Amino acid sequence: MSDATLKPGVVTGEGYNTLVNAAKSGGYALPAVNVTGTNTINAVMEAAANANSDIIIQLSNSGAQFYAGRGIEDGFKAKVMGAVAAAQHAHLLAGYYGICVVMHTDHANKALIPWIEAMLDEGEQYYEKHGKPLYSSHMLDLSADPIDFNLGECARILERMAKLDMSLEIELGVTGGEEDGIGSGFDEGADNSKLYTQPEDVLQAYDLLNPIGHFSVAASFGNVHGVYKPGNVKLRPEILKNSQSLVQKTHGTGDNPLHLVFHGGSGSEKAKITEAVGYGVFKMNIDTDTQFAFSQPVGQFVNENPKAFQYQVDPQDGTPYKKFYDPRKYLRLGEEGIIARLQVFPGVVEFLVRRTVFRVHLVQKGFGVLVDESTHGL
Ligand SMILES: [Zn+2]
Question: Which terminus, N or C, of the chain has the lesser number of Cβ atoms within 10 Å?
């Protein structure tokens, strides 16, 4: 527990740490939802506000590029500036939704190390001006590379981030499935040992990174990106427990010393999610389910009103279709799809995040923090 005071807005540094510890000790995970533009980021903030929940908002590199716009010719620059734009959007507006927002960037593999470094260049400038970082955290996913390279680079980047009160998310073991073309080595049906993180690797990461700064670990325990037919995903949350125990024994820490992240959360069983959360998972990534939640109502609206998407005015009876084809009409339907979906996400908003209700209300009333016995067992 920490005595940092949380106010609605983007939380970083000590405030971020407070949210992480509150989630772990309160037995819930914060949803981390991928966004790609103002429609999705606003929908996610509205969903969090409706659920009285705090939220983690994240962008992939291509999501950031899309945020900046496909028209920017220099794709690398767009990935950097789109990420900056999304974070500034959240810094400006999150407070008006009355929620705490963690701003984060998703998978960056070896080829994307320059993306992280360029975002840190921007982050340093922002820090100098505002006294806080632009992003709460970034992810560096070098799980496809040898572990010594993975951890060496994580240490180097974390040195820089720690000076900005930022946290680093790392990955050990490979999350199966595909997300933005990253992590596509999943062999369906195979019991691939790479899909399961080794506790010794987690200990090595803790030994190296804990003295440098705040970090979290995306561990692989059979989780996969995307949605697959039932039976292909064999989640083994005990892998997380074994990693926690090894670090705890070796360093004589308290329970669940590691901050763990659950990737590939879409379509997972509630019982396995609950079990994983009990082993120190504070962040649960959600992407694929919310993509469908946005697109499905838009598709339905177009199907139900086909003429409005072919003619400005009906060629037979002269009906004007402006109120149908105005992009705000169907984009709002997409936003409402995301908002509705996030209220019932199994294991996350549906019952776990409800435990934050008291907490957020306390924050809004300016009581500061926040986790006490009253938040347990709701
Ligand atoms: Zn992931």
Answer: N
Q: What is the DSSP string of 190-228?
A: ---GGGB--HHHHHHHHHHHTTT--EEEEE-BS-BSS--
Express each pLDDT in 287-339 by its tens digit.
Answer: 888 899 999 999 999 999 999 999 999 999 999 999 999 999 999 999 999 99
Question: What is the C-alpha separation between 130 and 112, in angstroms, rounded?
Answer: 26
Expressed in angstroms and rounded, the spacing between residue 220 Cα and the centre of ligand 1 is: 10
User: Which range among 45-49, 83-87, 203-207 shows the weakest confidence by mean pLDDT?
Assistant: 45-49
Catalytic residues: 106
Cα torsion 125, 107, 6, 24: sign: negative
Domains assigned to the chain: 9-375 (3.20.20.70)
| Residue 131 φ/ψ region, left for φ over 0, alpha for ψ in the -120 to 50 degree band, beta for the rest | left
pTM here is: 0.86
140 in Cβ contact with 108 (< 8 Å): yes
CA distances to 21, 142, 227 from 289, rounded to whole Å, are 27, 25, 8
- For residue 47, report the distance from its CA to the centre of ligand 1, in Å: 21
**Torsion angle, alpha carbons of 31, 32, 37, 40, to 10:** -10
Q: C-alpha distances in angstroms, 108 versus 67, 121, 169?
A: 17, 16, 10
Q: Could you give the angle at the alpha carbon of 161 between the alpha carbons of 196 and 165, nearest 5°?
A: 110
What is the distance, to the nearest Å, from the Cα of residue 343 to the centroid of all Cα atoms in its chain? 16
In the reported structure, the alpha carbon of residue 325 is separated from the centroid of ligand 1 by a whole-number distance in angstroms of: 35
Winning range, highest mean pLDDT, from 123-127, 260-264, 283-287, 364-368: 123-127
Q: How far is the CA of 175 from the centre of ligand 1 (A)?
A: 7
Residue 27's Cβ-count burial label (10 Å; 0-12, 13-18, 19+) is: middle
Residue 237, phi then psi, degrees to nearest 5: -60, -20
131-163 pLDDT, tens digit per residue, is 999 999 999 999 999 999 999 999 999 999 999
Between CA 209 and CA 63 the distance in angstroms is: 28
